Structures are given as C-alpha cells and as structure tokens.
Amino acid sequence: MAVRAGAARLVTTPPLDVQRGLEGRRLLPPSEGVHDDLHTRALVLESAGRTLAIVSCDAIGIPSGAFTTRVRRLVGEATGIAPEGILLAATHAHSTPWTLHLLDAEIDGHWLETWAHQVASAVALAHRRLAPAQAFFWREELPLAENRRVPCSDGRVYRNWRRPKPAPPVRQHPMDPELGLLWVEHPDGRPLAVLSNYAMHPVTVMTVPYYSADFPGVATRLVERVYGEQFVALFTNGAAGDVNPPNVRDRWQDAEQTGIALGGAILRGCGLAQLRLHRQGEEAPPREGVALAAVARAIHPPFREIPAELLPAAGNDAGGAARRNPALLAARLARLAEEDEPLELQALRIGELALVGVPGELFCAIGLRIKERSPVPHTLIAGYANNWLSYFPTPIAFDEGDYEVMVAPWSRYTAAAGEQIEQTALELLRACWSEPTSPGA
What we know:
Blueprint: E1 2-11, E2 19-21, E3 33-34, E4 39-47, E5 50-57, H1 65-79, E6 86-90, E7 105-107, H2 109-128, E8 131-141, E9 146-147, E10 149-151, E11 157-159, E12 178-185, E13 191-198, E14 210-211, H3 214-227, E15 232-237, E16 243-244, H4 252-283, E17 292-299, H5 326-339, E18 343-350, E19 353-357, E20 361-362, H6 364-373, E21 378-382, E22 391-392, H7 395-400, H8 416-434
Parallel strand pairs: 3-14, 5-6, 13-15, 19-21, 20-22
Antiparallel strand pairs: 1-4, 1-8, 2-7, 4-5, 8-12, 9-16, 10-11, 12-13, 17-18, 18-19
C-alpha cells in the first residue's frame, strides 16, 4: 500500500505524585520511583485526501471521553485531522498511574491537561514528518497468552496462574493467538514504524511501586533498538478482558521474559513482512491511493441493577478499603449509571486492514466473533481505546461469577453490552468497507 506516513515517540513519564489516595484513604502502594520510562507513540497515515492517527500510550487507561475529546481538539487544531480519525489506545500496563477513577485513587487534573498536550504533540510531530511510504500487513500466531478464567468442578473460577488447580477444570474459554502487524517503511526500504496488536493483560508487575510500561515496554524497546532511534514501535492491546500472560508474579524478570517473547515475535513478523513486501514490489509497484476511512458511533448499553441489600449501607465505608466493601462499590456504580457516559465505538480502515476501537476490556470470545464476521479481510481489536468504561464479559461469565462480573464500577453493564458492541462494531466495519475509494485502492 502506497501512503504518506509519519511516526513519533515522546517520553511522557509523569511526576510520582500525580496519583493520590482519596480524602481519608491511602493509596497502596504509593509510587517510589521510575523503573522504565513511559512513552506515547503516534502513527499518522495519509492517502487520497484522508488522514488517520493511531496513538499508543503506556497507561492503564484513557481517563475519560472528555480527555479524548480534548486531545482530538488539540490535534485537530494542529493538523486538521478529523476527530473520528484519531484513535487513542492505552496499553493497559498496570504499573502506570491509576487514571481510571476507580477504588481509592484520584488523578491530578493539571497533569491530565499536561498529558493531553503531550499526546497531541506526539500526533502533531508524526504529522509534520509525513512522507511517502509503503505499508504491509502481516499476521501470525503467538501461543503466549492464556485465558485467565478457569472454572472448576467446585463451582469456583480460578486464575490461570494458580497451578495446580484445587479442582478439575470444567470449561476452557477461547483464546485469540493472532499477532497482527502493520509494517511501514520508506520507499527505499528504510524502516519507519510498526503497529502491533496482541491480546494480553500487562500485569506481570502490576503491584510493584515503580512506574513501568510492563512487558509492552520491553517488547517495543527491543524492536526500536533493533531498527534504530528513529523507528517507532506501537503496541495496541486486543480483546484482553479475560486474557493474561502465563506469569503474574510481580517480578521484573517476568516482565522481561514476556516482553522478550512478544518483542521477538514482533521482530520475526517485521522481517517476514519486509521480505514479502519487497518480493511483491519486484512483481508490481504498491497501489496508489489506498483506502482510508474512519467512522465512530456512541451507544448506551443497559446498566446492571444494584442489589437492594447493598444500597442502604452505601454511604458507610467504616474505614475499610473500597475494594473490599461491596456497598461502597455498589454506590459508585450507581453514580456511574446516573452519569450514563456514552460508549464510543470506532472503526478505522487502512486498505484491507481495520482497527475496531473499544473503550474497555472486551472478552476474547466477543473479539473473536467480530473478527470472524467482519467484511474487512483483516480486522484487529484495539481495546482500551478512547476511554475506559468497563469489562465487557460474555453471558457465560456472568453465570460463572468472579471478579470481572462482580457488582462494581469495573462491571457497569449487563451482558447485553457485549452483544451490542459486537453488533455495532460489525455495522461500523461494513460502513468502512463500503465507502467509495479512489481508483487503485
């Protein structure tokens, strides 16, 4: 695919005190230092008068729809890119500042404004670097991640890292092993950027009191070291709501091992993409005017009901930790339901590749169905995109119970939300795929 492309990478590590405990509470554990810097990476693509921007942030989540609107406005003022053509994705690394307004944490609003300008600056810099380029999509299977929910015969759901299980498993939930890559290079073959996508929770060092980009940081830094300082390696997470790495032990060596495994697979894919691209280039030149398209839509899935027995005591926390107080969690969930923030779904098309932006933690089975039913030849799920609103589990997960479906702010909607996301995503993909394209696209 012949396009114009530009990429940029900025260090966006915040001060250690940007996250604090709410009044009367203590944030556990407080940040004590920086293990490795956090980055924002941006890729801008332009063709046939249309421009898309894809942003990957080393963050646990995008704070809100208002934050995304602010970034899109800043980007639009600097570059003219339309709001629906800008996708902000968080890697979901858990060893980053807690930007999700859950539990006992709050974030410094002044820093959020600074971060919004940093993210917009990364896009603006990538846009200023737009130059002729060619792109190629590559996919392969990486059998690294595991479904973390293991229902067993004793009626409980155990995590994947508990080995052995105290009772025999009764069900195995699906996995998506696809590692998707969009390789971008200059016309003379010099590497420019890669956009990678893989579904796996960055929780190898989730409670270590140091800032870290977790295994996505290890992987992207490895790729960038191989291809040089000017090369930019973006990572977007997939439908990882119920997907973990094999080790969740709060050890730096687990982050290193997992990141090297992922980064090595990305490097292998980059090399194969280069070889295939150059082989095709010998047979026929890249197509001019590749189709770019962007659509977005807001939906309002139904909120789950709050059990009546939790509501009377909702205002009395008795000094306990919020995460252990069902009444307080239910009260916060009720307030979120009153706000009813819309859930934005987004679809970006890059030739025969599409990215579906989902503002939260989509379960793997739903992501697989979207991929299987998509009219676009290659479809990837970009989870944690443009906002963070909830887990989006399957109906069977609600029947099984456990963390992702408990009555809490991280489980706001009924099982109908996943079904509505799937249906709306497919409608957006059909709209992207049917848009008029320029000759040769």
